[in-house]
Write a structure and sequence with these properties.
Length: 115
């Protein structure tokens, strides 16, 4: 039994309208790359720890970075939320969110005084 995560074809059909148009060369397999990105984020892994079934880690990272900068993932989330039946509230499970200790608002300012 495999522990890898794979999007279904039905899920891909819902996501495809939000993908940016390909310029020049065809993109690497969207199903494989997006499944890999979800697997990495879901499990809190480093890009270099991606299972080989998802392809090269650099490909996963480059797609994630480029599409994040372009707002593709935000548009996907907004679009899917708008399609929710009966205007239900969509929530994010915070157990997958992580914050680094340096992200705290209690960091010291210059001179050693608290903010």
């Amino acid at each position: 039994m495999s522990n890898l995560y794979w999007l279904t074809e039905a899920q891909m059909q819902r996501l495809r309208p939000y993908f940016p148009k390909s310029r020049g060369r065809a993109r690497v397999n969207d199903l494989r790359v997006l499944s890999g990105i979800i697997f990495i984020n879901r499990n809190g892994l480093r890009w270099c720890d991606a299972p080989v079934e998802y392809g090269p880690p650099k490909t996963l990272y480059n797609r994630w970075k480029r599409w994040s900068d372009m707002g593709v993932f935000a548009r996907i989330m907004m679009g899917l939320a708008e399609q929710a039946p009966d205007n239900r509230t969509i929530s994010i499970d915070a157990t997958y969110l992580k914050a680094h200790r340096t992200a705290s608002s209690l960091r010291l300012k210059k001179g050693g005084k608290a903010a």
